């Protein structure tokens, strides 16, 4: 069966610093060609001889199958734009090797990733300390301070509101409706740092919070946040929740999430067919 799959596998670099050589971070399931796959990433590599200087990346076949062939292509994307820092291809499986994984021991050097982490930390510090803020947002009794230029650089909607002919452009405090304070706070944090809080900081219902955040990301045209929310919804998808997640994908135009949900449903139907 021919097929293809795509996943945006995003790691928060700063949260990988305490991992050891050989520690693995796994992606959600990828359904392609009638099989289930996962991406395995070792942020400090898999070889002790490299002393944690490289990130290792592998494609792993999760399904129990034989004679499976696939082309595994991986790209390292810059946060600031679509430019590819690294683009590689591997054929799965390697000739004469029975391993269920295929990839690179030295996919990218960790030193190549350091600068992005520093920028996120510095911008997050500006937000936390309200240094040089020039606009405030009032959300159901709570006030959040921010920087017009940073918001405009990240979101075309914020740019139109804060620098265009709209009334908000001259307001010192912009009042927002139809969004909860905790959702807007999390959105702001992502705008500045490109990262989401850990699940325990997202409230009692992580899935509900992510759905609200996805709606806000769609409202402000924050495509990277939409992708992050879509990935979180996918990570928790199950037979019981896939219909709800598919509905969210339809409403907020998350095409990749929609395709993966449909593939998930089809895969479950195939597995339930009598032999």
From TrEMBL:
Q: Which domain of life is it from?
A: Eukaryota
- Fetch the InterPro entries from UniProt: BACK_BPM_SPOP, BPM1-6, BTB/POZ_dom, MATH/TRAF_dom, SKP1/BTB/POZ_sf, TRAF-like
Q: Name one GO biological process term.
A: protein ubiquitination
Q: Name its pathway.
A: Protein modification; protein ubiquitination
Could you tell me which PANTHER family the record lists for this protein? BTB DOMAIN-CONTAINING PROTEIN, BTB/POZ AND MATH DOMAIN-CONTAINING PROTEIN 1
Similarity section: Belongs to the Tdpoz family.
Q: Return the protein name.
A: BTB domain-containing protein
């Amino acid at each position: 069966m021919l097929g293809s799959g795509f996943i945006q596998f995003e790691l928060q670099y700063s949260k990988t610093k305490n991992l050891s050589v050989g520690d693995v971070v796994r992606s959600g399931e990828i359904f392609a060609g009638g099989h289930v796959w996962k991406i395995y990433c070792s942020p400090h590599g898999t070889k002790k001889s490299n002393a944690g200087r490289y990130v290792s990346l592998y494609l792993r076949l999760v399904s129990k199958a034989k004679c499976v062939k696939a082309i595994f292509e991986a790209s390292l994307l810059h946060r600031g734009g679509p430019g590819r820092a690294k683009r590689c291809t591997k054929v799965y499986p390697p000739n004469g090797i029975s391993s269920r994984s295929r990839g690179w021991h030295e996919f990218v050097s960790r030193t190549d990733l350091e600068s992005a982490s520093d920028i996120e930390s510095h911008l997050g510090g500006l937000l936390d300390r309200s240094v040089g803020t020039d606009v405030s947002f009032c959300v159901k009794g709570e006030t959040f301070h921010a920087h017009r230029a940073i918001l405009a650089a990240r979101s075309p909607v914020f740019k139109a509101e804060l620098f265009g002919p709209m009334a908000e452009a001259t307001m010192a405090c912009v009042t927002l409706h139809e969004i909860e304070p905790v959702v807007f706070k999390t959105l702001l944090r992502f705008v500045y740092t490109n990262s989401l809080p850990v699940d325990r900081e997202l409230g009692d219902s992580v899935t509900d919070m992510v759905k609200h955040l996805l709606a806000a990301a769609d409202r402000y045209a924050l495509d990277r946040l939409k992708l992050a929310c879509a990935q979180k919804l996918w990570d928790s998808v199950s037979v019981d929740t896939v219909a709800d997640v598919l509905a969210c994908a339809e409403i907020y135009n998350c095409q990749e999430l929609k395709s993966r949900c449909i593939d998930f449903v089809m895969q479950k139907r195939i597995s339930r067919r009598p032999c």
